[in-house]
Amino acid sequence: MDKYEEFAEAVAQADVLAEVFWEEKYMQGALGFNKDVSPAMLIMYMKNRYHWRDRHEQTVVAEKIPTLDEWLEEKDG
C-alpha cells in the first residue's frame, strides 16, 4: 500500500464499505428483520474490527452564562 497510492485508496474505501455492510447487518438483526444475526457477535466484531466503544467520554467546558437579571443589570448599568 505504501508503494501504490491508488491501491491504498481502494483498500481504505473498501474498509468503509465493509463497515457499512456490517452496520446494516446489525441493524437488520436489532430490528428483528434477520433472525440469523447474533447481536452479541456483531457487537464484538465491530468493537474489534472498527474500534467501536460502548461509551464516548466527553468533556464540556463552558463559561458561566449570566442570568437574565445579571444580563439586564450589565445592559442598563
Number of domains: 1
Arithmetic mean pLDDT:
86
Find the structural class using helix and strand composition. Answer: mainly alpha
* Rg measurement, Å: 24 Å
Strand content: under 5%
- Whole-Å distance between the termini? 66 Å
Largest sheet properties? none
Q: What string gives the helices and strands in order?
A: HHH
Envelope shape: elongated
Regions with little confidence, pLDDT below 50 for 5+ residues: none
| Helix content range | 55-70%
Total number of strands: 0
Tell me what you see in this structure:
The protein has 77 residues and is mostly helical. Helix content is 61%, strand content 0%. The protein has 3 helices and no strands. The chain has helices spanning 5-30, 39-50, 68-76. The termini are far apart. 1% of the residues are buried. The mean pLDDT is 86.
Task: Please outline what is shown here.
The chain has 77 residues and is mainly alpha-helical. Helices cover 61% and strands 0% of the residues.
List the helices and strands and how they pair.
Elements: H1 5-30, H2 39-50, H3 68-76
Helix pairs in contact: 1-2
What labels would you give this structure?
single chain, 77 residues, mainly alpha, elongated
